[in-house]
Design goal:
alpha/beta; Rossmann fold; 10-stranded mixed beta sheet
Amino acid sequence: MIKRALILAAAIGLSGCVSLFPKTDPAILYKLTGSAVASTATSRPAASTVLKAPTAFTRVAAADRILTTTGLESAYLAGARWAAPAQVMFDEALVSAFTTAAPGVRLVTRGEVAPVDQVLRVEVRIFEAQYRGGRKSAPVVVVEAKAGLTNLRDRVSAGDQIFRAEAPASSNRVGSIVSAFDIATAKVLGDIARWTESQAPARKAA
């Protein structure tokens, strides 16, 4: 039961402590891929290059623990963790989303050498499974992020927008909840990629 698998937020401050129960079964690790991003079929080359700044993430959900909320109470799922910090996996999935959903934009990361038109900044504000009908119900995963673009040439904002997706878990089981995270994340990532492509200036032919 998920109800028994939740660790109340009061234990968050103890997350850095050494376990006193070395015989406890290790947590199952889950990946967040965002692989459900809808593809945009096209063969045209990228017309704009955008630098991806490091993604900002809500602190309570940024690590490798799976966050849930019930009203004003926050909790982590016990016995289940992300295979890497959620912030890292979200960042990696964001890069992949541009290849799938926004082929008109080449997204580069820091350290790459390329002429850049704009900088994309993403701030993940909500990344959690919400129990709206109580702990025995199937939760709804909510992912919300704010994206902003800045033109490098004049340092002027090219716009910003908030993207939000909700995906109900099919059951109150960890696997179903993780799948809902992947669906909601993919929706937000795809929307950010397509919005960036619509805002990015086309590079003039020489």
